Amino acid sequence: MEGIRDGDCVTWAEGSATSNALIAETLEAVGHLRELKLWFGILTAPQNFAREGWQAGTYAGFHAARDLLRRGMAQAHPVPYSQLARFLTSGDWQVSVVVASGRREAGRLRIGPHLGAINPCIAAARLVVVQPTPALPEVAGTLFDCDRLVVELPAAASPLPEVTAGAPDAVELAMAGHVAALVPDGATIELGMGRSVDAVASGLSRRARLGLHTGVMTDAARSLMDSGAVTNSQKAFEPGRSVATGLLGSRELYDFAHANLQIVLHPADMTHSATILHGEPCFVSINSALEVDLSGQVNSESVAGRYVGAVGGLPDFHHAAVSHRNGRGIIVLPSQAASGRSRIVARLSGPATLPASVADFVVTEHGIAALRDRSADERRSALIAIADPAHRRELAA
Description:
Blueprint: E1 9-12, H1 20-29, E2 36-40, E3 54-58, H2 65-70, E4 75-76, H3 84-88, E5 97-105, E6 108-111, H4 118-124, E7 127-131, E8 143-145, E9 149-152, H5 170-182, E10 188-191, H6 195-201, E11 211-212, E12 216-217, H7 219-227, E13 242-244, E14 246-247, H8 251-257, E15 263-265, H9 268-271, H10 274-277, E16 283-288, E17 291-293, E18 298-299, E19 302-303, E20 306-307, H11 314-322, E21 327-332, E22 344-345, E23 361-364, E24 367-370, H12 376-385, H13 389-396
Parallel strand pairs: 1-2, 1-5, 2-3, 3-4, 5-7, 7-9, 10-11, 10-16, 12-14, 13-15, 16-21, 17-22, 21-23
Antiparallel strand pairs: 5-6, 6-8, 17-18, 19-20, 23-24
Helix pairs in contact: 5-6, 12-13
């Protein structure tokens, strides 16, 4: 870590691509520096970014990042995922050092199974630091040429981050049935992040000849491949293979993806490309949200001033779906938050991540609101009908 110096902007390959121990080791090694910028994406374990003279930034407020944002140890930048590479290779947050779990292989570089914006970051960086870790999955797309200075640390026993989802509850199972009715056999699907999307994916297990082209592949996607629902036989881009920019799930997911010729990772500028997605015979995006208002606007970022979500890839995939000649953009959310607050709202409490002009399908446990080409009054009625019954009268007032 001696090559990291004052004024650097350091980023870690996100999610499953960097062990939490390596992130902590990096922070400890640079603790003496007075001025640093530190960028992170999906972060699964608490870390200490609090140093005078340091700035920490992220595009996401979920998992461990949520507490860092709440405590003022990091700032949120609402950057769409497809623009993340541009953000990190130019301007104030231009990356100079990249850190990742990985290793050198015969003159090439292998990193952990999440690409995102890391390829252009590596190409622009002055220094790349990798640390071998046991059971690093060898997934197509994670081995590439690198002409930057690469420092390989001694191997460590720290595992890659894992995230597991619980079994779907009754609300999620109801949503799963509604979503399944909207996804035709042979469609190429995108599955957003979050418990709700993982849960509704279970309802697609009886679909046939599905393709997968997504941002982050989870255990839900692995289950669809295991069930035979996802075969990728109808896809135009990477036929026969599930496409993602990263993996995030259990050890079983990483083992499943290891040397699996049916899985390939691509950088975000390809996975989130509307041009590529429009080449699919049918494309359906499935994403979660924090709130939907009665005009069809979607907030996936913050509630009551707290940044707890992300812009992420939602606009990229949803816009590609609704502008596709044979596409559908689906937003799923339980009708109520755990607090009892309605998630179908008269007015958003945070930003409009998606405008009303691209509204398509909204699904709660109470049904489906089909909003495309509907009038303002028709949208209002359709959304009130799928709100929790306890809030419908208030919403209709």
